[in-house]
Amino acid sequence: MTDYYRNKIHHDEIIATFDDILIVPGYTNFNPSEVAIKSKLGKYDFNLPIISAAMDTVTEIEMAIKMALFGGLGVIHRNCSYEKQLEMVRIVKRARSFVIDDVATISPNDPIAKAKYMMENYNISGLVVINDTKKVCGILTKRDIPFTEDHLKKGTVKEFMTKQVISISPGASREDALNRLFESRKEKLPIIDEKGFLRGLITKKDLAPEFPFASIDEDGHLVCGLALSPKFPETIQAQSMLKEIDKYVDIFFIDVADFYKKADIEGTIKLMNLLESEFVLGNIGTYEAAEHLISKCDFNAEKFIGLKVGMGSGSICTTSIQTGVGAPTLYATAQVADAITDYNPKISLVADGGFKNPGDLPKAFTAGADFIMSGHFFAGCTESPGYIDTIQGRKVKVYRGMGSKEARTSGYVSDRYTEGSKVLPEGVSDYVPFVGDLSGVIASLREGLMNSMIYAGAKNIQAMKKAKIGIVSPVGQRETRIHDLIGAQWRI
Ligand code: XMP
Fold first, then answer.
1. Domain end call among 158, 183, 207
2. Nearest to 394 by CA among 429, 431, 356
3. 276 CA to middle of ligand 1, Å?
4. CATH code at 202?
5. Residues 293-320 pLDDT 10s
């Protein structure tokens, strides 16, 4: 049995967490530009190993889109109906794609005035021209629309369209499309199959590498995560709704406070049989729980791609206060990382919650994490749901635990905690400072992580897992924070 990660925090019984440890500096034999923070979850390689939490004050449409554009992942919460979840994941999936499936078309015999009307009213800059047999016969862009009243009144599309259509075959890569657009100096590239039928459209605008690190699927759509209850829905109607949702989701996150439970495991097995997408299961906090889930349960092996860990350490959590049980994120990470090493190293580990400073992220990776998930860092961003309020002149946003009484009134997350528990909240609702756009927060988290890796001498996340950790003495904890300054007492 591996005890590598547990030995790093010295003693199995010490439930150590971020402030208890520091990463020991290592030898650095590479340039800062060589540091890579890529990490793997199921079939995707993410350029940013950071995930926004499945909470209703953290991740809805805007956050999910931005997280994916920056190379990470947003997990949309489950404190709402399946209908609302479907609406959200659909928008995220369609938000950015270099292939437009829903192409605007027109007939060659249509009046040119109709083309002008379509372009102006639907905000499109070009139309693909399709003949009676549904084959592509031309392309018409804004530049082809005539200026003169006479032409506009009497002209038809075929008189103004470009007949020599520069196109590309279905399945072409982003690079092929970029080359074709560059060679032809065109802005639009219809995708036409060998029989002449239109299969989609690629535009130069959508290919622009504005977000070169975005998390995208095989079709160029953003990768989307969604939280689910482990309870299997019994009605056919709910099951078909879930199947519809499944079309737009890449990774489902089973979202309960404690997943090491027979009923939740059985429900999840059924969900995995019903749905196509991959699954991350959680939360758990111990070696034994991970060992049980990986080696003794009947989960579909292809779809079981990750474990999410940490119990009671979130900034809005009161589980440990209310129940006396907890597995803080660093401790849970080390525990589960060892079980993954022993039973199935292909499973990725998501360390969830409890991160207060950028420096806590690298500590989680050193304890065996592949990804970190946070609500705390993102709840105060422009992209999180909710309004900006002002308290004593400071801009703030609401951040609430999914176990808070405020979040539970909707009824959707009551099964996130102990079944049947009605009066005991396991989270709070409060304010966090408004911190502006997500881009700024991501930039400091990314930089904190990369600089940490340079100090530790780790070129990538796998190397970071091998970096040494030391327990900091109470005196050391004081010394490694700001100290002995006039204002310092207020900042600690
Ligand atoms: P942070 O530290 O980022 O933690 O605020 C976010 C994680 O906390 C979990 N979560 C809760 N845990 N009671 C809990 O015990 C709650 O009300 C609650 N709400 C969220 C969740 O795993 C999230 O990702």
1. 207
2. 431
3. 27
4. 3.10.580.10
5. 999 999 999 999 999 999 999 999 999 9
